[in-house]
Amino acid sequence: MKVNSSSHRFIELASKDANLFLHHLSAALGHCPCHHCREQGAELVRVAQSRVLHAMDWAQASLRLHEANPSSSSLAVALGGCLELYRDAEPRLARLVSGESYSGDDAVTWLSGVVASHRSCLDGLEEKGWLFETMEAQNLTFWLSEALAFYGARSNRRDRNKGKLLISVFA
């Protein structure tokens, strides 16, 4: 059996430090329980959460302005929809950074829902004539996408490698 250089490094690492080897293997399989890996995902979510809170504040302030103007009632409805979507989305992000237990699939589902809510808000505003591709909107989209990519990659690795523990070390 031919052992490639990556597999050789894993075998060498296993022989030197079993704990470090298990950490790297767990991370590669998407099951890394270490503080650093969990904290990396939590930090992405914290930034996205702060952007969602900022979007909620913006939607609330804009709604107050447009409620006072009867000619912009359809825009006020769209802004109210955004506010509701962001209010529903924020607790999902809060749970991801709360320290309570959840699965990787839960994280992907919740983040996907938040991305869908954000996109729905932007689409609703665009339908009312607001082209809302500001830096803030792009920034929120970026951070949500980064968090989703982080948790999605971990979930995909885990699903792809179910039942294959250690096989890649020797392949």
UniProtKB/TrEMBL annotation:
UniProt GO molecular function: enzyme inhibitor activity
InterPro entries documented for this protein: Invertase/methylesterase_inhib (IPR035513), Pectinesterase_inhib_dom (IPR006501)
Pfam families in the record: PMEI
UniProt protein name: Pectinesterase inhibitor domain-containing protein
Highest taxon of the lineage: Eukaryota
Originating species: Escallonia rubra
Pectinesterase inhibitor domain: residues covered: 45-131
Organismal lineage: Eukaryota, Viridiplantae, Streptophyta, Embryophyta, Tracheophyta
